[in-house]
Amino acid sequence: MDNLLKIKNLNIEGFYEDRWQPIVHNINLELKRGEVLGLIGESGAGKSTIGLAAMGYTRQGCRIASGSINIEGIELYDASEEDLRLVRGSKIAYVAQSAAASFNPSHRVINQYVEAPVQHGLMAYDEAEKEAIDIYRRLFLPTPETIGLRYPHELSGGQLQRAMVAMAMSCKPDIIVFDEPTTALDVTTQIEVLAAVKEITETMNKAALYITHDLAVVAQVANRIMVLRNGRLVEEGETRQLIKKPKEAYTRELLNVRNLRQEKSISDKMDVILKVRDLKATYTGRENVLEDIDLDVRKGRTVALVGESGSGKSTLARVITGLLPAICGSINFLGQEIPLDFKTRDKDTLRRLQMIYQMPDTALNPRQTVRKIIGRPLKFYFGIKGREAEERIRELLTKIELDPDTYIDRLATELSGGEKQRICIARALAARPDLIICDEVTSALDQLVGEGILDLLQDLQNKTNISYLFITHDLATVKAIADKIVIMLEGRIIEQGDKKEVLTPPHHEYTDKLLASVPEMDPDWLDNLLDKRLSTFI
Amino acid sequence: MKNILLLICKRIGASLITIFVISLIIFIGVELLPGDVAETVLGQSATPETVEAFRKELKLDLPPHVRYATWLNHFVHGDFGNSLANKRPVAELVNWRLSNTLLLAMVTAFIAVPLSIFLGILAALYRNTLFDKMISITTLSFISFPEFFIAYVLIALFSVQLNIFPSLAIIDDNMGFFNKLYAIILPSLTLTCVVTAHMMRQTRAAIINVLGSAYIEMAEIKGIRGFRIIVYHAFPNALSPVINVVAVNLAYLVVGVVLVEVVFVYPGLGQLLVDSVAKRDLPVVQASGLIFSIAYIFMNLAADILSMLANPKLRQSNF
Question: Nearest Cβ partner of B223 from A116, A153, A154?
Fold first, then answer.
């Protein structure tokens, strides 16, 4: 069969530090009808850049330096803007990572669907509208006849992402580029979108580039996989082959199933350092976002708090730290009742309960050096200054595996995401806390970097017997580090217990759905799951 | 529906409070004017007795807060008092002047708003090209000149050299609409030059500001034409700042055009205000001052409400 898309010796340059520097090196790629090619790698691997270049498009500050991009015999490398415009949308379409940002907030969803076919002169408005409804139905969007009349902000994240998949189909292109279409979604919503992708690539016989950083996800949809790193090809192969027998060390690293800790026993005799009873909290004063929260954290152990976005996990963290005072209930910390509002807590209580945030970028003051960031809690809680502080800062940097000489005078902006998160950990450790609340600390980081952070946290716990309350939506992380699991849904705890207990059946119904939704490194996993759901549905 | 109505009610309430505060400031400001009104009006030959009698007639002998309360009460009921200079009711004077001012403002707005938004869109579409720079330089030079200078240049060109438009914008009630239009063409051209630059630059900036959004990239990737991307995808999301700058400029057209009125001898409200200050005709000064403030506040209120309605997220709370 002929190749729909053929990219040869593609080189892309980006403009930074005042000159053009290569960011994608000599990529070759072929795509046949009915085939899905997975592009996988961490951020900075050049996946999205390649995906966009397949449409002859580059972002501001980038340019295609050399190579050939050929779609069904049309060469895009030296095509005019007008020729490119005719190809984009009609022959090759794009599904972006964040549908919420990529839908125009000012126009109804269906108008944005209809726009491309009408503007390309392929269909009349009415005809395109009819097709939109048909595709909405095929992608299992609720009330397909009327859902398009809504504005983007009136759809949920998963619905919007499916509406965007539908929009990409509007001109019936032969090739679709999926750029991390499920990264911003919960595991349970991810399934809906993956099913939509399958529907399109298999039933409608389209070719697709599927870009993601998650090998387990791409294994569900791709026939072939290309592993990329720093703009270069690491290895390429059939999906099953690549997963079973990866040739390169880097691929093996990506494949490694995370298993960081030895099992620790939790006995009832161990000290409970945080005991939360009957907490209720509200933002508006009318409806409660948290109801009847009971929770124990033991010394030297990790409690994982799991749930979808909107389940109240982060709110619970805010309530425990006192940033959002609970309206009733009690918090017992280290054997004594503490005030619900942080303003009335004493300094020592504040010190012993620290927090690490999801976004290390915003949690650090970009104008401060590492020395100042870590020195601040030392001075605030212990009054340590001068040479003593310097020694402590260096000690802490060594603890978080960053070289003190290199890092102590860097500004926060001069650090990578993983390094920033390590600095956040050091800042929390500087207070010598008994409990650290970790709020999605790895979800903004690449897989391998995130694993480094989890390793570090585990290591620190083994050495200092610190406790963690670990908030996450990622069940793989939970399996890797938790002693105890607490599952939340709509502001309530619906199940909690030791890891083994929660992870082995029988589950609570929701836990079951949550666990079943985590993609496994098995190419047949999605098909099996969808078959199973369909059969139980009927 | 409830949310947005509540929001609008709050804004209206805040506007009323602002108007009240401004009325206070106007009154105090007029109080602080040096000299005695009665003496100024009657002239130097007046005897102390006549001055005293005149003060009584004007109720100037009452304490300020009583006079303020009476004035405000009358104003709210549409009674602006009588002019000191010619004893005619202020309402009569102001009415005619205000309608002239509004006519000039509306004609100007009719030309300037579409023109500047169109130019702003073109400048955003061809940003950083020669065309964009030409528009910027031209409009910027227009605001850099004082408006009376532009007025004289236009008079020199269109009435003296070409002799196609009148240099004096004299109008009266017997003239038909098109005759009026013909009479005020030069002042409104002058004002158009003055306000276009501001609105056009804001439109351009607001559009360019949203061009970095993901949905613009999406539109480009869908193969949409550049002009449509600007007009259909970028402009609706840039409306809020544009509405605001248009409102401020429209308010300026009502309030701040006295120089142009003087040059063209146009009987607008601004000229009336200046004349009345010179003549110490306090009721007229107070009334026109308050009308100007109300115009300003009303335009800002309208801008706020329109920006709210332009945003589907806020508009949708209707249902």
Answer: A116
CA distance A197 to chain B (A): 19
| CATH code, domain with A166 | 3.40.50.300
Query: Tens digits of per-residue pLDDT, A440-467?
Result: 888 777 777 888 888 888 888 888 889 9
**pLDDT in the model for residue A267:** 57
- For domain B91-316, the CATH class is mainly alpha
Identify the CA nearest to A290 among candidates A496, A495, A437, A492: A492
Residue at A203: amino acid letter: T
Mean pLDDT (chain A) is: 86
Instruction: Say whether B312 and A153 touch across the interface (CB within 8 A).
Output: yes
Q: Which of A84, A94, A104 sits opposite B215 (nearest CB)?
A: A104
A342 and B CB contact within 8 Å: no
Burial per residue of B116-131, b for 16 or more beta-carbon CB atoms within 10 angstroms, e otherwise: bbebbbbbbbbeeeee
Residues of chain B with CATH 1.10.3720.10: 91-316
Residue A445: other Cβ atoms inside 10 A = 23
* pLDDT score at B47: 79
Query: A59, A102, A106: which to substitute to probe chain B, counting the most B Cβ within 10 Å?
Result: A106
- Closest-approach residue (CA) in chain B for A93: B222
Q: Looking up tokens 């933002």, which residue turns up?
A: A283
Total-model pTM: 0.74
Q: Are B302 and B47 in contact (CB under 8 A)?
A: no
- Average pLDDT of span A335-345: 88
Contact B224 A119 (CB under 8 A): yes
In the listed set A228, A254, A280, which residue is the last one of a domain according to the structure?
A: A254
B227: closest CA of chain A, how far (Å): 12
Is the CB of B217 less than 8 angstroms away from the CB of A59?
yes
The answer to whether residues A247 and A282 belong to one domain is no
> Residue B316: pLDDT above 70?
no
A106 contact B CB<8A = yes
The three-state secondary structure class of A38 is strand
> How far, rounded to the nearest angstrom, does the alpha carbon of residue A146 sit from its chain's CA centroid?
31
Q: Do residue B221 and residue A115 have CB atoms under 8 angstroms apart?
A: no
* Residue range of the domain that includes A433: 272-504
- Asked if the C-beta of A105 comes within 8 angstroms of chain B's C-beta atoms, the answer is yes
Query: Which residue of chain A has the CA closest to B215?
Result: A102
Per-residue pLDDT, averaged over B133-140, amounts to: 89
Partnered with residue A31 across adjacent β-strands are A5
pLDDT of B319 over the 50 cut: no
Contact B223 A88 (CB under 8 A): yes
Residue B73: partners with Cβ closer than 8 Å, 6 or more residues away: none
From the list A59, A84, A88, which residue is nearest B222 (CB)? Answer: A88
Determine the distance in angstroms separating the CA of A108 from the nearest CA of chain B, rounded to an integer. 9
Contact B316 A59 (CB under 8 A): no
A210 interface with B at CB cutoff 8 Å: no
Contact B195, B255 (CB under 8 A): no
Q: Are residues A198 and A298 in the same domain?
A: no
Residue pairs spanning A and B at CB distance below 8 A: 78
Q: Is residue A515 part of a domain?
A: no
pLDDT at B35 over 80: no
Q: Examine residue A260 and state whether it is found in any structural domain, yes or no.
A: no
Q: Which residue of B has its CA nearest to A155?
A: B313
The pLDDT tens digits for B143-171 are: 888 888 988 999 999 988 988 888 888 88
Q: How many domains are contained in chain A?
A: 2
A392 contacts A380 by C-beta, under 8 angstroms: no
Burial state string for A279-315 with b = 16 or more CB within 10 A and e = fewer than 16: bbbbeeeeebbbbebebbbbebbbbbbbbbebbbbbb
Q: Are A305 and A203 members of one domain? A: no
C-alpha A134/C-alpha A144 separation (Å) is 8
Shared domain check, A288 and A314: yes
